[in-house]
Write a structure and sequence with these properties.
Layout: H1 3-13, E1 23-26, H2 30-40, E2 48-51, H3 54-62, E3 67-68, E4 76-81, E5 85-86, E6 92-93, H4 100-109, E7 110-118, E8 131-135, H5 140-149, E9 153-156, E10 167-172, H6 179-187, E11 192-195, E12 197-198, E13 205-210, E14 213-218
Parallel strand pairs: 1-2, 1-4, 2-3, 4-7, 7-13
Antiparallel strand pairs: 5-6, 6-12, 8-10, 8-11, 9-10, 13-14
Helix pairs in contact: 1-2
Bound molecules: ribose-5-phosphate.
Residues 27-32, 81-84, 94-100, 103 line the site of ribose-5-phosphate (R5P).
């Protein structure tokens, strides 16, 4: 099976977590895009969605699926999204598509985070995938210097502006031995909007696409 077929399989398998009559939190990226295709097949049974990016919003709307503002929603049963890496504690690196901040907000509103990923995303130690950090543009150099002190090699993602009007620094060569502590440290740097480390709030369920079918992991 190709990687995209594995992503499609997990995207569709997440449908079983969608309860009729609810508002569903929807992620961003190629795997979440398959979930949107799947969700469209039961669009008349759900109340609508909250979306983590302009790209996902556009795709949801193209299917005629209602998209609510996150401010209109008190709580969500589930948030379904992909990941760039996930470890065995269900902690993740996200933000390869620059949507990390809105993703973290919707994950915070949701009771359950359902991570959908192909098996190439499962790692023992997070950090091979460069860790994205969304930064206020005027703080870019300062934040880069602070991230360098943490032992990584921050690289400015040229030409990318997030949906919130900010920039991204990707931290290369940082093997993350203490994800919870690191998430807090990076979030505390002035000028950082969000780090794409989802450690304090990881996934509750992971649906992992493998050549032998979709495996479900829970803590
Ligand atoms: O900003 C993007 C998101 O965090 C994505 O969920 C993540 O990059 C995984 O994307 P994909 O499903 O395309 O591998």
């Amino acid at each position: 099976m190709t990687q995209d077929e594995l992503k499609k399989a997990v995207g569709w398998s997440a449908l079983k977590f969608v309860q009729p009559g609810t508002i569903v939190g929807v992620g961003t990226g190629s795997t979440a895009s398959h979930f949107i295709d799947a969700l469209a097949s039961m669009k008349d049974q759900i109340k609508g969605t909250v979306s983590s990016s302009e790209a996902s919003t556009a795709k949801l709307k193209s299917y005629g699926i209602p998209v609510f503002d996150a401010n209109e929603v008190d709580s969500l049963d589930i948030y379904v999204d992909g990941a760039d890496e996930i470890n065995h504690h269900m902690q993740m690196i996200k933000g390869g598509g620059a949507a990390l901040t809105r993703e973290k907000i919707i994950a915070a509103i949701a009771k359950k985070f359902i991570c959908i990923a192909d098996e190439s995303k499962v790692v023992d130690v997070l950090g091979k995938f460069p860790l994205p950090v969304e930064v206020i543009p005027m703080a870019r150099s300062y934040v880069a210097r602070e991230l360098f002190k943490l032992g990584g090699r921050p690289i400015y993602r040229q030409g990318v502006i997030t949906d919130n009007g900010n920039v991204i620094l990707d931290i290369h060569d940082l093997l993350i031995s203490e994800p919870i502590t690191l998430e807090t440290k990076i979030n505390n740097i002035a000028g950082v909007v969000t780090v794409g480390l989802f450690a304090n709030r990881g996934a509750n369920v992971a649906l992992i696409g493998t050549a032998n079918g979709v495996k479900e992991l829970k803590l």
